Amino acid sequence: MSSSPETRRTLRMAVLGLALVTQIAQPAAVAPPSSYPGIGRPATAKELAAWDIDVRPDFKGLPPGSGSVAQGQDIWEAKCASCHGIFGESNQVFNPLVGGTTAEDVKTGHAARLMDPAFPARTTLMKLPTVSTLWDYIHRAMPWNAPKSLKVDEVYAVSAFLLNLGGVVPDDFVLSDRTMAEAQSRLPNRNGMTTAHALWPGRSLPGIATQPDVRAPACMHDCATEAKVSSLLPDHARNAHGNLADQTRAVGPQHGVGTGAPAAADRADTPPAVSLLQGHGCVACHAIDSKLIGPAFVDVAARHGSRSDALVYLSEKIRTGGSGSWGAIPMPPQNLSDADARAIAQWLADGARK
Questions:
Q1: Angle formed by the axes of helices 310-320 and 338-349, nearest 10°
Q2: Contacts of 332 by beta carbon, 8 Å cutoff, 6+ apart
Q3: pLDDT at residue 32, as a whole number
Q4: Residues facing residue 67 across a β-bridge
Q5: At what angle are helices 338-349 and 272-279 packed, to 10 degrees?
Q6: What is the sign, positive or negative, of the torsion defined by CA atoms of 153, 148, 134, 93?
C-alpha cells in the first residue's frame, strides 16, 4: 500500500519526536517513582543521617565517643539539676530518676521493688532494661528547653553520671561506645524486659505466638456521632455592633468575645515580646495574667519591674533560671539570645501589657 509524501513526512516527524522524548526522559528514569509528581524530592544521604539517630538495644546506631562520671556531674549541675535535682531525686513536677535499686539488683538484673506493693515509687533506674534507652532519650530530648543540644560526648558523660548515682558503675567509670555493653551487664533491671511476645525483636520463641494482635474487634463501628455546635464570626462582621467584650459585665460566666477589630489587626497589636515568649516556649509554664506552673508575667512585673536594675536582673534570671523565688518548682536555664532576653525583660519592666 502506497502513501502520500505528506503522510510519510508526518510519520517521520512522529518517530523523531518519540525518539527525542525518550532520550530526554531517560535520565529521570533512575529517580524513584513519586505518588505526587512535581512535589518534593528524594531525601539526600546527609538529610537521612540527620534523622537516623536512634540507638538500638544491640547498640546499633551508637556513635563513637566517651564521657566520664566526673564530666557528667559538671554537665548535670549546669543543665539538668534544675529539673531533676542534684541527686536525680527531681521534684513534684518531674519523676525521680534514681532510687529503689540495690546492689543485689545489680547482681540479679531484676529490680525487686518493682514487685513490692509497699514501695509504690517507680524511678527510671528501677524500670530501665537497656542503657541504650537512657542514652537515646537524653540524646534526642534533653535538656527539655533545648533538645538535641548536647554533644555526643556530653550524652555519654551524663549517662555515666546517672548510672553512677544509681550504683551501677564506679566513680572512675568512663562510658563509651566500647564500654556500653559493660554498663548494660550491670543494669539493675536488665533482665526485667521480656521478649516473650510478637513485638520487637519478633523472633520465634517456643510456645509463644508470633502473630501480633492486629485482629481485635473493631472499636469504631457504629459509633454515635457527637453533636458540636459552633460559630465563626468573619472579620467583616467583627465590628458591626462595637466590641462585645466592652458591653458585658465583668462578672458571671459570659465575659464576651473581643469583636472590636479584625483578627489580623488584633495580631498586629501583639507586643513583640509576647511573640518571643511564644517562640521560646515560655508560655508552656507561664501565662500573662494567671499562674500556671510558674508565676504570671504580670506578677513578675509587679515584683521586679520597679527595681533600678530591673532590665539587668530580669535578663539574667531569664537566661540562668533558678528556684525558690516563686516556690519549689525550678525554672531551667533558657537558651535564647541576649537581645531576646533583654526584649522580654524590658516588656516585664514596663508592666507586661498584652
A1: 130
A2: 79, 82, 83, 143, 144, 145, 321
A3: 52
A4: 175
A5: 130
A6: positive
CA dist., res. 331 & res. 125, Å (int)? 24
Q: Of 337, 320, 321, which Cα lies nearest the Cα of 329?
A: 321
What lies within 8 Å, CB to CB, of 195 at 6+ separation is 201, 203, 205
66 DSSP β-pair partners = 176
Nearest-10 Cα torsion for 245, 246, 252, 253: 0
Domains of the chain and CATH, by start: 66-184 (1.10.760.10), 261-321+334-354 (1.10.760.10)
Q: What percent of the chain clears pLDDT 90, i.e. is strictly above it?
A: 36
**Distance set, CA 168 to CA 69, 78, 158, 162, 163 (Å):** 11, 23, 14, 9, 5
Q: Are 248 and 257 in contact (CB under 8 A)?
A: no
How many CB atoms lie under 10 A from the CB of residue 100? 22
CA-based torsion, 246, 250, 256, 261: positive or negative: positive
Q: What is the pLDDT of residues 191-234, one digit of tens each?
A: 988 766 666 555 555 665 566 656 666 666 677 776 666 566 67
What residues contact 338, with CB distance under 8 A and at least 6 apart? Answer: 315, 319
Q: All 3 cell numbers of residue 132? A: 541504650
